[in-house]
Specification:
- The protein is mostly beta strands.
- The strands form five sheets. Strands 1, 2, 8, 14, 17, 18, 19 and 20 form an eight-stranded mixed sheet that branches.
- The longest helix is centred in the middle third of the chain and has 8 residues.
Amino acid sequence: QADIIFEIPVEGDVTRFMALYGDYTKVPKICPIRSCRYYFPAISQGFDAFYVNWGIDETVSDYLKSLNMDQIEGITNTGGLFGRDQDKRNQGYALEHTGYFDGTQLPSYIESKGLRTDLKEDKKGPAFSFNGMEEQIKPASSDCTSVQIDFGSQSAAFTYDAEKMQYLKQINGNPQMDAVTGEQLGFTNVFVLETEISVRDEIGHKRIEVMGGKNSTGYYISNGAVQKISWEKDGGKESSRLKFYDENGEELTINCGKSYIAVNYADKTTFQ
């Protein structure tokens, strides 16, 4: 049900996902909910979003405080928004994979706490620059019906379904299914944003450059084609919007629909 899903490496080059919902009153119950890595809220702040997590990487706690974000955290929250999914526990899932966030309770929680719900003035437009509602524009480059992304210890793949006009997602070679609906994840738009990633401590936590720049390489895949782009957080701050540009430096317009955004090492994606 998320409008945008980000997938980014963490320790050991497995990945975690950040789901972004355009309407905070329509967030479902989500399981599992996991701990924060600093680069996820660094991205979410560009959308002026409530940031929800359960646990943090303590080595970046001061940085997270500096973001001054509207954060809802599972360890300290006592508002009934978080819990353990007993069915998953009964199925033998490790405890850290059973935590849930009950998004259906979010609107009442926000109201009870008097939290701000009006978007900041510079965030009131759409997330990206979109084509018309009835337009499905094919990127002006190469045909692309298959995308393979190698994160290291984990992989993502997309196969284009021309009838649905969506790229259907696989994880580690298997269809990635929504456990509630039983449907395979599908996206109108797929982005791969290449960046610098390194290990910053003995635990294996990552240092990931998420600000981008006019020379940052990326790819936009939609409607059966792929084109090379550049990307940046406009203004170079965590609160800046994430923007995409074509090879002429013009802001990219994308098709209306759900989007998937991978942030990954360079030269680890193949297109067919």
